[in-house]
Records
---
Amino acid sequence: MTIAATPTQVPVSVDNDKCIAEKGCTVCVDVCPLDVLAIDMLTKKAFMKFDECWYCLPCETDCPTGAVSVSIPYLLR
Amino acid sequence: MDTLTCSIVERLTSPDAEVRRLAVIDLPYGDEDDIVPLLLPRLKDADATVRTEAVRALEGYEDAEVVEALAPMLLDADAAVRAAAGEVLSELKESASAAPLIPFLSGHTAEVRMLALRAVRALRVDAAFAPAMEALKDGDAAVRREAVGVLGYLRKAEAVGALAEIAARDPDPEVRRIAIGAIGYSSEVSVLPSLTRALTDVAWMVRDEAAQTLGKLRLALAVPDLIRAMQDEYWQVRVKAARSLGLLKAAAALPALVEALAHPIGNLRKEAAIALGELADPRAIPALEKALDDADPDVRKLSRLALTAISLAQK
Amino acid sequence: MKRIDMEFDLVVIGGGTGGPMAAVKAKEKNPKLRVLLIDKANVKRSGAISMGMDGLNNAVIPGHATPEQYVKEITIANDGIVDQEAVMAYAANSFDMINELDRWGVKFEKDETGDYAVRKVHHLGSYVLPMPEGHHMKKILYRQLKKARVEVTNRVVVTRVLTGESGEVVAVMGFDCRTADVYVIRTKAAVLSTGAAGRIGLPASGYLMGTYENPTNCGDGHAMAYHAGADLANLECFQINPLIKDYNGPACAYVTGPFGGFTANSKGERFIECDYWSGQMMMEFYFELEGGNGPVFLKLDHLAEETISEIEHILHTNERPSRGRFHEKRGNDYRKQMVEMHISEIGFCSGHSASGIHTDARGATSVPGLYAAGDCASVPHNYMLGAFVYGRLCGENAAAYCAEHGLGAVSAGDVAAEEARILAPLGRTDGLTPFQIEYKTRRLVNDYLQPPKITRKYEIALRRFDEIREDTSAMFAANPHELMRAMEAHSILDCAEMAARASLFRTESRWGLYHYFVDHPERDDENWFCHTLLSKGEDGRMQMRKKAIEPYIVPIDDEERSAYQRLRVARNAEAA
C-alpha cells in the first residue's frame, strides 16, 4: 500500500521577516493546543506543520512580534 | 552566547534586547520557582519593550517590594510601560498595597492620576478618600470617572452629596452615569432627588442606570418617578424601570405594567410580566391571561409563571 | 524513544480548568505532597477555556439565588435524574470559589459600588455573572500553579491508568507527542480532568478539528476511566449545542439574552420556550430547523448600538475570539442582519448536560484513588465554575486519600502490554492513517447516532464500529505527532461505542433531543427513573446496569415542580 501526500492550504501563516524564532522564541509552538506549529530547522522560522487548526488564536495573540496570523479554515468560511 | 541553549537566567541579561524580552515572557512558564527577584531588575532595563513585559509578568505578585517597584512605573518615559503598569496595578487586591500609590493620586499628569485612582479603587482605603474627593473637580473627564469609582467602592456617607452633585452637573454623560451607579450604596432618602432627577437626564444611559439603581436600593418613594419612566422614549430604560417596580412590589405601577404588557417590544412585555408576578395583584390576571397568547414564547412562559405566583400569593 | 520512569503522590491528568485547581488545592492541603499536573498540550493555553470565558452562568450568589433553589432548578432541568448531594456540593461551594477566583485576579463584572453585577436570565433565581475580561483566565491559573510549586509536564499524552490487585490506582502511562518517549508514572492517586468528549461526531463543515469543544478534548479521560474499571453515568444523555452555522462556536444566547438578544426562526420570531440550555431547548431548536420554519438565527439587529458594541466586545475577545473574523468574512453585522445558527454534532459533556465518569459529591469515581472533575465527570450542568469547585474537591479529597495509602505494586506485564499498544502504530511502515480511522468513526457517528435515535441505526453503527476496531490494528503513524492522533482515534472509537450502548439500554425518551428515542418515544418514569452505568465487564466488553436515584436532599413538591416546569415547556406540551 502506498501513502499519498496531499497538499492543503493551511490557516496559520507566519511573516518570516517578523518571526524571531532564531532568537529562541517558541511562543506560538508552545501555546498551540493541537501542537500543529513547529520551527523549521533550516529557515529557523515558525510554520504550520499539520492542518489541524481550532482557530483559537493564542498563537497569534501571544506572538511577541505580531508575526502570526490565523484565518478561518477554508472549509468553514 | 548561543541563545538557543543557554539558561533563561542568562538570557535575562543578554546584550540583545529582544532575547531579554523573550526571556521575561518565558519566565512565568519556566522551571524557575521564584521569579520576582529575577524580574525586578528588568523594570530598570534600558529597553522599553523589556520593561513592559517585566511589568506584565509581575501581575498578581502583591509583595510590598513589587508594589513599591511598580508604582513609579506610572511615570515611565514610555507610554506602553505606563499603560501596562496601570493595568497591572489595577489588579491589586490588598489594602496594604495602597500606600505606594497615594502620592500618584494628585499632581503629575492626568493619565497618571487616572491610572492611580483606578488602582486604589478595589483596595478601599481611607487614604484615598480625600484625593478622590479632590479629583471630582479634575478638568479631565477620565480622572473624574475613576474618582467617582473610588468613592463608590468606599461607600462613605460623606461622599453622597458630592456624588449627587456630579450626577446632576458633570458635563460628561459617562461620568454622570457612573456617579448614579456609585450612589447605589446609600439607602438614605437624601439620594432620592438626584436619582429621580437622573431619570430625566438627556443621556439615556444615565436614565437607564438611575432606573436600575432605584430598584437596587428599594427606594419606595421613587415609585411615582419610576412609573413616569415607563413612558421613556428608550425601551431599555422602560425595561429597567419595570424591573425596579417589580422589585419594589409597587402596587401603584399596575396600570403602567399592564400597559407595557401590550407594548410592541417583546423584551418590555417580558419584564412587565415578571414584575406583575412580583406584584402578585389579582387585578393583573386578565391582562396576563391575554398574554398567554402572545406571539413571543418568552412572554407566554413568563405570564404563566406570573399567574402561578399570583395564585400562590392568594393562598 | 526512551522510557521515562517517575514517581509522584498525585497525578492530575489535564491542565485546562478543573485540573490546575485540583493540583493547587492538593498542594494547599498538604504542601509536601508530590503533585504532577500533566497535559498533552501546554497548560499555558490548554483546555476548554484556553482563550478565557465570557461569564459564569451558574453563579450561586447570596441575595440573587440560594443553593437549594439552584439544586431544584438543576433537578428539574435534568428531568429528575440527578444525585442532588453532588449538585449541592457544587452549589454550596460556588460563592466561595467566586470570591477566591476574584482574589486570584479573575475579573467579574461589578457595579459601581463593587458588588457583583449578577444578571437575571429569566430563571427563578439569577445566576449569570459576566466576565468582560475573562481572557486572562489561564494566566491566572498558571500563576497559582507556580506559587503552589506544582510540577508541570506538557506535551505528554496519558493513555491509561493502571490499577493494582484490589483495583486501586497504582500508575499512569503515556507518551511524549514530540519524541514518543514512554512515561511510566507510579502514583497513589490520579485526578482525571480531561474535558468533554467533543470529537465523537463530525462538524457539518467536514473540517475534522472544527469542533465546538477544544479538539484536544476527545474523550481520552472517558476511555481511560472505562479501561481502569470505573463506572460511567448516563452516557445516553448526549451534549448537543446551538452553534453559529459552520463556525461551530457557541451562539451564546445566554450572553446575549440579558441584553435582549434571542434565537429566532426564519420569520424573525422567537420560538424557544425553554431558555435553559437543555435537551428540551435543543428539541425545540431541532424541530424548528427541520420543520419548515428554519433556518434558525441569532437575532440582535433590534438592539441599540451601545448594546451591540458591548456584546461584540464580550463575544469577540473571550472564549472563541475568531468569531469576529468569521463574521467579517461572511459580511455578517449584528446591527444589520440575523446570524445563521445550526445544531452541533453529539458529544459527552457534563458542563452542559449530564453524562460522564461517575463521581460522588467528593469527586471520587468507583475506582479507589481515582477522581474526576469538570466536563469529563458526571455532575450535571456544571459549566466552568463547577469544574473549579469539583477540581478543588478532587484535589483536597485525593490529598486526604494519599495520606492514608502507599504506592501500590505495578504489574510489569501491564506496563509492557501498554507500552506495546502505544508504540505499535510507530512500528508499522504503512497501513491506515489515524486520520482515516478517525474520520470514518466520526462520519458513522453522524450517520447513525445523531438523534433522533433509532434502534436499527444503532445496531448498524455497532457493527461498523467493530469493523473499525479490527482496522485499528493496521493503523500506522509516521511520527510522534501522528501517534497522538492514533491514540486519540482509539479514545474516539471507545466513546462512540459507549454512546451507542448506553442509548440502546435506556428504552425510553428523556432529556429532550439528547435522548429522543424514536422506538420508545415516551418518558417512562416507572422503569427508567434511574441512572444508567456503563462499565467494563468480566469478558472485557461494555456492560450496562441501572442505579437508583439517591434520595433527594432538597424535596420538590408538586406546586414547585409545576412552577419550574412552566419555565421549561410549552403550554401545549404541558397539557399533553
Note: Residues 8 and 51 of chain A are 7 Å apart (CA to CA).
---
Amino acid sequence: MKDFLIEYAHIVATTILGLLFGLSFFLLFLNFYHYKEVTTTYQPSTENGTAYEQFMKEVQEIKENANTYSQKTYKGQEEVFDMLNMQTKIQMCLKLYETDELKALLTKETYTVNDVYELASYYQNEILNDCIVIQMYNLGSEESPSINSPRLRAISPFLKLEMDQLLSEGLGYLKNNMKNNDIYYFSNDDSKTGVFELTKNSYLEVVNYYRHSLAFLKNFSQWYKNLAIGG
Amino acid sequence: MKKILNILFYILQLVLFVAAFALTLVVMIQMNRRLEKSFMTTINVFVPFGILLVLLMLNMIFNQKTVRDNILYNITSNLSFATIVIVALRAMFDNHLIISTLNSYHMDFNFFANFLPFLKIMLYGLCISNVLLMFHISQKNNDKGKKRKKSVQNS
C-alpha cells in the first residue's frame, strides 16, 4: 500500500512538473516574441517627401494666406482689430508646427513605438491644447467676446463642428493602446497584416491627425485670405 | 551523460534561483516604494521562494537523489527561474515598454505585476512536486519486490 502511494505521488509530481514545464516554456518564449513585437520599427515612405516636408508646404501656404492682410492696405468693412486678432491666432498656431521639437520628431528615418508615442503626445499637448483649444476654439463660439465680425459668426458653427471633430478623434484610445504594449497579446503575422500593427499603424494614424489639423487651419486661412482680399 | 547533465542543471538551478529571488526583490521594493506601501504587503510573493529554499536545503542536507537526479525537475525549475529572471530584467531595462519611460523609476511595474500569478503558480508547483518526489521506495522494499517478482516468474 505504502509503495503504491509513493508511486502515485511520483506520478502526480511528474504530472505537475509536465504542466509547469509547458507553462514556463510558453511564458519564456512568449517573452522573446513579445520583445520582438515591441521593438518592431517602422520606416515611413519618403517617395513624396517626408511627412515634415509635406507639412511645411502646407504651413507655408497657410502663412502666405494669413499674411495677405495688411493694416495699411486693407480697405474692407471688417474691424482692424478683428482682422489682426484672427491673423495672430493663425500665426500662433503655425509657430507650434515649426518648432525644433516637432522637426526632430517628424524627420526620423525609423520609428519605434516610443517615438510614435512622443509624436502623439506632442500633437495632444501642443496642437490640440495650445492651438485648437486655446487659440482657435473661441472662433467657433457664436458669442465670441474678442471678435465681433458678423462674417465670422456666419461660419462659426462650421468651425466649431470641425474643431469638435479634431478634439474627439481617437487620439486617447491610440495613446492608451501604445501605453498598454506591456501586456502580452497574441498577435501573429496574419493578424498584423489585416488588423493593426502597433508601431506602423499608430504612426500613420498620428500623422493623419496632424494632416487633419493642418487641413482645418488651411481652410480657415483660405477664408481669411478671401476676407482680406475681398475687402 | 545523464549524471553530468543533472549536475550542470542542478548548479544552474541554484544560480538562477538566487538571481530570480534577487531581481524579484528589487522590483518589489521599488514597486512598494512607489506606492508608499509597507513591504509586508508583498510578503506573499516571497513565501514560495522561502519554502523552495528550505526544500532545496533539505535536498542538499539529506542528499535526496530522487529530487536531485530527476532531470525533468531540474529542467523545469531552470526554465521557471529563467522565465522569472527574464521578465524581471525586461521590467527593469526594456525601454520599449511605454510605461517604463513615463514614470521616473524607469521600470514597468505593470508588466511585472501581470506576471506575479504565473510566478506563484510556478514556484508553488515546484514546491509541491519537490515534496512529492522526496518520498521514495526504500532499497530494501525495492529488493523484496524484485525477489517476489522473480519467484513468481520461476514458479
Note: The mean pLDDT of chain B is 87.
---
Amino acid sequence: MKLLKTLMAGAALVVGLGGMAQAEDKTKVGFVYVGPVGDFGWSYEHNEGRKAVEEAFGDKVETMFVESVPEGADSERVMTQMALDGADLIFTTSFGYMDPTINVAKKFPNVKFEHATGYKQADNVAIYSARFYEGRSVIGHIAGHMTKTNTIGYIASFPIPEVIRGINAAYIAAKKVNPDVKLKIVWAYTWFDPAKEADAATALIEQGADIIMQHTDSPAAMTIAEEKGMYAFGQASDMKQFGPTARLSSIIDDWAPYYIARTQAVMDGTWESTSTWDGIKEGMVGIGDFSNDIPADVQASATALKEALMSGSTHSFTGPVNKQDGSAWLAAGETADDGTLLGMNFYVEGIEGSVPN
Amino acid sequence: MMRLEPRTDPSNIMIGLTPILAVLATMIFGGLLFVFLGKNPFDAIRMIFWDPLLGEHAFYYRGQILVKAAPLIMIALGLSFGFRAGIWNIGAEGQFIMGAVIGGATGLALYPMDSFIVFPLMILMGSIGGLLWGLIPAYLKIKFNANEILVSLMLVYVAFNFLVGMVTGPLRNPDGFNFPESRSFQDFPSAHNPELWSGTGIHWGVLVTLGIVIMAYIAITRHIFGFNVRLAGQAPRAAKFAGVNPNKMIAICLGLSGALAGMAGLFELTGPAGKLTTTFPVGYGFTAIIVAFLGRLHPIGILFAGLLLAVTYVGGDIIQSQLSLPKASIQVFQGMLLFFLLAVDVLVNFKIRIGKRITK
C-alpha cells in the first residue's frame, strides 16, 4: 500500500513537472549523443551545433548534453532525466534513439523532441536529417578524377538506406568522370570504433584503393591515409588536422542553423512537429576547402557540381541509372523521388558485391 | 625494496569493511578528480550517490537502478560459481547475446501468436541459447584442455557477428525500411516483458533475479554443490578425493553461467531494449565480472554490488548532463571503485614490509 502511494505521488510529480518546465524563463535544451563529443565526426558536429545555440541566445538558453549514450534503455533514461530536469526541447541525435524518443515523448507531452535520421514522428516529435548524399556526389566526383589505381575504398557502417544511398551517390558521380572506377566496400558494423575503422582503411589500401571514403565517425581512416600517403575525405567534420596532406576535401554536417531555428521556435511558441531533410542548399551539408593537390580544372568542375546541386539544376540521382541487377531504375533525365531514396536497399549498376543481407 | 607478506590472521571485520572503505576512497579520489575538472566535488558526489536514491526525481531513478542492476546481478551470480571453482568464464557477454538472439528468434517465429505460452517459451529458449554457448568453451576445455578464458572471450565476437547477421537477415523487421532491427517486442504483447507496475521499473527479469539471488544463496551456503564449488576452487586435489569430478564441474559452471547470462539477455531484449539491433549489447556481460568480484562472489554481496554499480551508472548520467562532465570521467570513477576494492583487499590480507627479507 505504501509503495503504491509513493508511486502515485511519483506519477503526480511527473505530470506536475511536465507543466513546470514551461514556466521557467530560461529555455532548456538537451542533447543526447551516441558517440563522444571528441569523436571529431558525427557527435562532435552536433555538439558544435549545441555551442552555436548557446552563443546565439546567451543567457536566455541553457543547454545540457550526455555523450556516448547506448541506444535502447539507457537512452530512454537519459531523455527522461533531461525532461525531468526541465528541458523544453531535446535533440536525440542517432537513428537508434527513435523508439526511445517516441516512448519518452508520450510521457512528456509538453516537452518538444527532435529526432535525427529516423522516420517516426509524433505531435511533439519532429524529425530531421541532412541530404548527405549531395556531399557524396561532390567528393565522388573528385575521387573519380584523383584515383590513379581506379579503385576507391569505402568504409561503410551499417547496410541501412542512408549508407547505401551514400555509396550509390559517390559511385555514380565517380563513374561519370572515370568509367573505369571501382568501389571496394568494407562493412565495419559500427559508427564509431577507431581501431576497426583503421583496420578497414588498411585493408582497403592493401586491396589497391588509393582514396578512402567513409561513413563512420572517427578520423582513424584519415590518419591511416596520411601515414600511407593515400587520399581521404573528412567525414561529418573537416578533419584537416588528422591528414594535412591526405585530406582532399570533406563533407561537413552543419546543424547550427537548424538547432538555432528550432530553439527560437520553442521560445516563440511556434514550434511544430515537422519533417526536415535539408542539403547543400540550406547549408546543412557543407563541402570543405579543396586541397591544393586537386588540379584547378577538377576544383572548378567540383565547385560547378556543388552549385548545380545547390540551385537544384542537378540531382545526385539523375537517370539513366540501372539497378545492380541490370533492371531499369531511372529513365534518362528522371530524378529519384525522396520515397525511394529514404528506403534505398539496392546498389546501382556497376558496384561489385552485394548489400549484406 | 617493498614487498608483501601475507597476514597470518586477517581481521574478519576488515574483510567485511573492505567494500565500504573502497567506496569511501573512491569518493575521496573521485572527488579530487572532479576538482581537477573544475567542478564542485561535493555536488558531483551527491549527484552520483544521493540524487538517484533520494533526490528530487528519485522516484524515477530508483526504478531505473533496478532495470540497470537486474541483468548485472543475474549474470554475476552465474559467474560467481565458476569463479569460486577457478573456472573463468569471461564471455558472458556472448552468452547474453546468444540468449537474446535464440530466445528472441523463438518469439519472432511465433509472431503474432496470442498465447501465454510464448513468453515462458522464449525465456526457456534464451536460457538454452546461453547454456549451449557456455558449453562450447567447456567442451573444448574438457576435450582439448583449451583455455576457457580465451575461448569464451573470443566467442563474444562470434556471437556479436551472429547477431549482426541475424538482424540484417532473417530476423529483420519486414516493415522496418530495411534497417537492421527486429520487430519491436513492445508491439507483440505475448512476447513483451513490460514494466509490471508503472514507474517502478520492475519487469519479470527483476523479479526472477531476486529469486535467483535467494537460490544462489542457498546453493552456496547450504547445498553440497556449493560446498563442492568452494572445495574445487580452494583445494582441487582435496576436491578430487572428495569425489568431485573436475570435468563435470567445468561443464556445470560454464553451462550455468551461460544459461543465466542467456536468460538475462532475453529479459533485457523483450523489456528495456525492446528489439534486437546491432547495438543491443552494451557490455552487461563484462561489467558483471566486476560486479561478481565487487560482491566478493557472494550472492548477497553481488546483489549490493550490482545495485551500487547501477547507481553509479544512473548518477553518472546525471552529473554528465548537470555538470557537463565527459563520460570518460565517470568511467574513471567507476574504475576507481574496482581498483580501490582490490587495493584494500591486498592491504587487509597482506602486510607491506620495507627492506630485505629477513631470513630466519
Note: Chain B touches chain A at residues 57, 59-61, 64, 67-68, 161, 164, 168-169, 177-180, 184, 186, 197-200, 268, 271-275, 277-280, 282, 313-314, 317-318, 320-322, 324, 326-328 (CB under 8 Å).
